[in-house]
Design a protein that fits this description.
The complex is a heterodimer of chains A (528) and B (254). Chain A has 528 residues and is α+β, with helices and mostly antiparallel strands. Helices cover 33% and strands 27% of the residues of chain A. Chain A contains 15 helices and 20 strands. Chain A has helices at residues 5-16, 30-42, 66-70, 79-85, 96-113, 130-135, 139-153, 166-175, 184-189, 199-207, 213-217, 221-239, 269-289, 321-335, 372-385, and strands at 21-26, 53-57, 60-64, 90-93, 117-121, 124-128, 159-164, 258-266, 292-303, 308-314, 344-356, 391-395, 405-409, 435-446, 467-470, 475-477, 480-489, 498-507, 510-517, 520-526. Chain B is an alpha/beta fold. Helices cover 31% and strands 23% of the residues of chain B. In chain B, strand 6 (135-138), helix 6 and strand 7 form a beta-alpha-beta unit. Chain B is globular, with a radius of gyration of 25 Å. The relative contact order of chain B is 0.14. Classes of the chains: A alpha+beta (528), B alpha/beta (254). At the A-B interface, helix 15, strand 12, strand 14, strand 17 and strand 18 of A face helix 3, helix 4, strand 5, helix 5 and strand 8 of B.
Chain lengths: 528, 254
């Protein structure tokens, strides 16, 4: 048998994409389906399923039934216009919560067929094909199984498509086709740029004369990235069928949990840990057979008197069996202080967040995944003092030294509270004070006459500061000072708005950052 | 034993003695390996160039404790060297940790873990951190007990971490005690102009590790570029025309 170079290339592309095949399930006109079902549940036998129906959001048509579409109703139309085309139109108000709630049973049904389902939006979900398709004898077998399941639930209109990557698969679902492995870019090339679901980009591309995804994908990626930014570069990758994103699975399958019943109940940490260790491997390997790893587990320890201590444990990579045993041990050790009064009768470990094996190879912190030893030591301290007792500082935006940092408990995703990249007018120049008082110290700043120094809205000081008077009655002379720096903090929110003026002042041996707000001076930080 | 001289050649030794000497030889080889392994790990944590003179030419000694009295800036600056070299730093019992300042002094905030309120278990917390972190800054909330510290010091030496102790309580058996006094602040005027830009202070080093060191030196804590370094006395004098140290050369005009 001879193979042509073309065949060779496509087979290697298929090999590269193994495990990246995605099936997308799409229920057309979902907002209408959901709204009608909700409507029927409140007012039964008042609706004819074939009647033209439209769902309105803010006075315009968000979605309409096929019958309404046949009469000329379109998405985005004003409600009055739609009703003039179709006087008998039943209009329902859009409710996002209803949309998602009605979709829930569908997701559960799909999860019965294959675990690891990502809900893209209500009415559409993605499923990784790999393991399940083998079970059903190929992708078509899996499609048939899903179609049968949904028809039995009363959704015969379901559309299913398979392709490489979630984006191509969602387009395939709209056409109801199976795109062969490696054929995604050819399949996408003919589609209009609107399917990227980025109206601004699509309009711009059309004005540039690029009407199809193929034409857009043909642009050099460096130039796309320079001209359209990160999101444009992502759209460019999608258009070229280079959708590397893995599915983020919705939630773990419910029957995978570690349940250790201790009979008789145990009160020694090491014996409890021993009992859990025997089952920990089994728990992790059961997840692994589903191609999943746990990144966050809930450990629930129940005492024989029914008292419960539970805590979420996150892992910067994923839990191995020894990690699970450690978490249980630490929690039991900490439980005696956290309110567990009786011997332990039941230990449950429930996976809360799971991910595909391989996605987490680099960890939440990317390349710099913290050393395992550091993680163990910090988690150890957390088990002694509580989850929030160990924090990492994350640079954040803000004007006062205290606002500069967001403290994030160890194990949580490090997200700054305020964007540090923005300009923060009124911020003090470097160097920053090394000690920031947790509770600012109330003092008064006095001038030579012993009057309190005040600062008006425009930053004018009543008189130069001469000394700092502490509450205890002692005073220290101000040797040199600088400022004031004014900041109107959160003026848009009457509740937390305050105007703050800050000065730096040096006294003998010390220098302080003082803040003035509403006739009161505070020592905010110390340059020690 | 009368035979030991006669059986110098191991082949001629009776079997039990030969195996004994074999064991001794092996353990000697192992000890050699152990020593070489620990020698490859440097005996000091790196520090920034400006602090080396203060610490006697080297960085922070592994397994040693340092007391810094009266300056958080100096304690943070000591941690900056190891942090820049990739070490993890733990900060225990310092709720007012100024992370902006720490970042300015060269500490990588990505590798900092804070335990602001360790409570009465603070020494256990520090001991747990010593197992994995290279440098720990601690402000003991209560005076440490000598016996506890002795037990802890063994662990610290074994793990090769360094401890920087701040706060009023001190630390028994510390390698070096650095006290900061005579701070002079620069950049601010007596009329509100300028801003705090630099500071000099006298740092004196005492303790068992201070032999052969300059006992007291004037240092920038930090200088206008945010570095901590000894004050070059001539350059320092040149920067202070007419002794008006608080007056910047350029003044903000508004």
């Amino acid at each position: 048998m001879t193979t042509t170079p073309t065949a060779d290339r496509s087979s290697s592309a298929a090999a590269a994409n193994t495990g990246h095949r995605v099936l997308v399930l799409w229920l057309p006109d979902w907002p209408v389906r959901a709204a009608v079902e909700h409507h029927l549940s409140t007012q039964p036998d008042e609706h004819d399923p074939s009647a033209p129906t439209a769902v309105l959001d803010k006075g315009s048509v968000l979605a309409c039934s096929p019958a309404a579409r046949d009469l000329g109703v379109r998405r985005g139309m004003r409600s009055r216009e739609a009703q003039s085309l179709c006087p008998q139109l039943l209009t329902l108000v859009y409710d996002g919560a209803v949309d998602a709630r009605v979709f829930e049973p569908v997701l559960v049904a799909v999860e019965e067929i294959s675990p690891g389902v990502e809900a893209i939006r209500p009415g559409m979900c993605a499923i990784a094909v790999r393991g399940a398709s083998r079970y059903f004898g190929g992708e078509l077998g899996m499609i048939n199984a899903l179609r049968d399941k949904l028809t039995s639930l009363g959704y015969p209109e379901v559309e299913l498509g398979v392709a490489d990557g979630p984006f191509a698969a969602s387009q395939a679902a709209r056409w109801g086709v199976v795109v062969p492995a490696g054929g995604s870019s050819a399949f996408l090339a003919e589609l209009p740029v609107e399917v990227l679901d980025r109206p601004d980009l699509a309009s711009l591309l059309k004005r540039m004369g690029l009407r199809t995804l193929g034409e857009f994908a043909a642009l050099p990626s460096a130039q796309v990235s320079a001209r359209f930014g990160t999101d444009g570069a992502l759209a460019h990758r999608l258009a070229g069928g280079r959708d590397e994103r893995r599915l983020s699975t919705r939630r773990p399958p419910e029957d995978v949990e570690l349940l250790v019943q201790l009979d008789p109940p145990l009160d020694r940490v090491d014996t409890i840990a021993f009992a859990v260790r025997a089952r920990g491997d089994e728990f992790i390997s059961r997840l692994a057979t589903l191609d999943l790893v746990a990144t966050c587990v809930l450990v629930r320890v129940t005492g024989e008197e029914g008292d419960v201590v539970e805590r979420l444990w996150r892992h910067p990579r994923w839990f191995r069996a020894v990690d699970v045993v450690d978490r249980v041990r630490w929690q039991v050790q900490g439980a005696s202080t956290a309110g567990l009064h009786s011997a332990v009768a039941l230990v449950q470990v429930i996976p809360v967040d799971v991910d595909r094996i391989g996605v987490h190879a680099e960890g939440l912190w990317g390349e710099q995944a913290p050393d395992e030893r550091v993680h163990r030591a910090l988690t150890r301290v957390q088990s002694m003092l509580g989850h929030a007792a160990v924090v990492t500082p994350v640079r954040s935006g803000g004007r006062s030294p205290a606002e500069h940092t967001t403290l994030v408990p160890w194990g949580d995703a490090p997200l700054p509270r305020r964007d540090p990249g923005l300009p923060w007018p009124g911020r003090l120049p470097d160097p920053a004070p090394p000690t920031v008082l947790v509770q600012p110290l109330p003092v008064q700043l006095l001038d030579t006459d012993g009057e309190v120094v005040t600062i008006d809205d425009r930053g004018a000081m009543s008189s130069p500061p001469d000394r700092i008077a502490y509450r205890a009655g002692t005073t220290v002379a101000v040797e040199s000072w600088a400022g004031p720096w004014l900041s109107d903090e959160r003026w848009w929110d009457a509740g937390s708005a305050r105007q703050v003026a800050r000065i730096q002042a040096a006294v003998t041996e010390h220098a302080y950052l003082l803040a003035y707000t509403a006739t009161q001076w505070w020592i905010e930080a110390s340059y020690d | 034993m009368t035979t030991s001289a006669a059986f110098l050649d191991p082949e001629e030794m009776p079997a039990p003695e030969r195996s004994l000497s074999e064991a001794t030889r092996r353990s000697a080889v192992l000890q050699g390996q152990v020593r070489t392994a620990s020698d490859t790990v440097s005996s000091h944590h790196p520090t920034s160039a400006g602090l080396r003179q203060l610490l006697g030419g080297n960085g922070l000694k592994r397994g040693a404790s340092y007391v810094v009295d009266g300056s958080m800036s100096l304690a943070l600056a000591l941690s900056a060297g190891p942090s820049a070299a990739g070490a993890w730093c733990g900060v225990v019992g310092v709720p007012g940790f100024g992370s902006q300042s720490a970042a300015g002094l060269g500490i990588d905030l990505d590798r900092v873990a804070l335990v602001p309120q360790p409570g009465h278990q603070w020494l256990e917390v520090v001991a747990a951190l010593v197992d994995a972190l290279d440098l720990i800054v601690v402000r003991p909330p209560t005076p440490p007990k000598d016996s506890e510290v002795r037990r802890f010091a063994g662990r610290l030496r074994q793990r090769g971490a360094s401890l920087v102790v701040v706060g009023p309580h001190g630390w028994p058996g510390c390698e070096l005690r650095l006290s900061v006094s005579g701070s002079r602040w620069q950049g601010m005027g007596t009329d509100g102009h300028g801003h705090l830009s630099a500071r000099t202070a006298l740092v004196s080093a005492t303790g068992r590790g201070s032999a052969g060191h300059p006992k007291t030196m004037r240092m920038w804590l930090p200088d206008a570029d945010g570095r901590v370094r000894p004050v070059d006395s001539e350059a320092f004098a040149a920067e202070l025309p007419n002794g008006a140290e608080a007056r910047p050369l350029l003044r903000r005009v508004r």
